[in-house]
Design a protein that fits this description.
Helix content is about 15%, strand content about 30%. It is of the alpha+beta class.
Amino acid sequence: HMANYAAQVFLLKLASDAKGDTAAMLKSPDGTQAALLKFNTRGLPVMSLWKNETSPKGGYVTGLEPGTSYPNHRSVERNQGRVPMLKGGESWRIHLTATGLTSKAQVDEAAAMIRKLAPEQPVIRTAPPAP
């Protein structure tokens, strides 16, 4: 029972290929269904993963949120250089593809593609790095 569970957010910088393309997937426990996001890290350089557990009856919610910055106060993100500044008439374009996978073969294929992007030794921090 997770009655006192507080929602958590994990701040991610995903590995990508030489063009900046990356992917993230949320799959069912049995691996037969998944939601796959594909995007380029030049337009969406960071991702927030939201996790909220309640009681077993209440369910479990996970959110995958690619973005230009993390969900911190804008001043924090601006100080870290993660707030794009556009001049009048400029635009910020991104391309994101969301795909529903409905078979184990599709999920396995997407997982293999993501594994190829992953570094051998990911960097995991439990606190933000010093500014």
